[in-house]
Amino acid sequence: MSHPARERPGATVAYVFIIMLSGVVATLVMDNNPWWGIVGISVLFLSGWTYFLPVRFTMDSEGVRKKSLFGLEEKKWSQVKSFVPDRYGVLLSPFPQPTRLAKFRGLSVQFSNNGEEVLEYVRSHAAGQS
Q: Are 45 and 67 part of one and the same domain?
């Protein structure tokens, strides 16, 4: 289970502050109409839903599954042509070379204090890639 908002409380406070400030600014700029503040806050929250809401990742010999409030996303190991680790997770890409499309077509797996374990599992099942 990955829940970045709970795992990084300092960043969460800053993130929520920025979202709320943006809502206040939107309200003030749009003639003190609170509707625009609510829309702004909603859009910013939804754009960062993977940060705020818990996500469960399952890895097995067939592939990776990402289960969240918004449904199930799956990627079979045969579809993973490369992977790119970063500080907070690993991006499983269907492309053999790094490309900007990977963020839209791939699957991002978030670490939850188990980064080395996850990377080792990905390396062993996506052998010869990356």
A: no
